[in-house]
Write a structure and sequence with these properties.
The chain has about 100 residues and is mainly alpha-helical. About 80% of the residues lie in helices and about 0% in strands. It has one domain (about 5-90). Helix 1 (about 5-10) crosses helix 2, helix 2 (about 15-45) runs antiparallel to helix 3 and helix 3 runs antiparallel to helix 4.
Length: about 100
């Protein structure tokens, strides 16, 4: 079993193609967030607290960009479920059965 097949099983998606699209969405989202930092940094200058504020503030931006790219590449349903799981773990909410 190769790496992509293991991801397919773990993520419970139907095809290797979906795995590739999901990896592409994560890649584009990360690159976009890093690219945006280039434009925000000059507004604050070189102060020690900027990175701390940036990493806290970028969390909602990252998640929004992730959803946008997910919908663009036809994986919106997967990323909506991903966000639900992420925030339920983050805020430690138990799933009701």
């Amino acid at each position: 079993m190769n790496f992509l097949q293991k991801l397919q099983d773990r993520w419970k998606v139907n095809s290797i193609w979906q795995v590739v699209l999901i990896l592409l969405v994560f890649t584009l989202t990360g690159s976009t967030v890093v690219y945006l930092k280039r434009f925000v940094t000059p507004l604050f200058g070189d102060v020690w607290w900027f990175d701390l504020i940036y990493y806290i503030a970028i969390l909602p931006v990252y998640n929004l960009v992730l959803l946008v790219y997910g919908f663009i590449f036809g994986q919106g349903r997967y990323f909506l479920e991903f966000e639900k799981r992420f925030f339920s773990r983050m805020f430690n909410r138990k799933k009701e059965k």
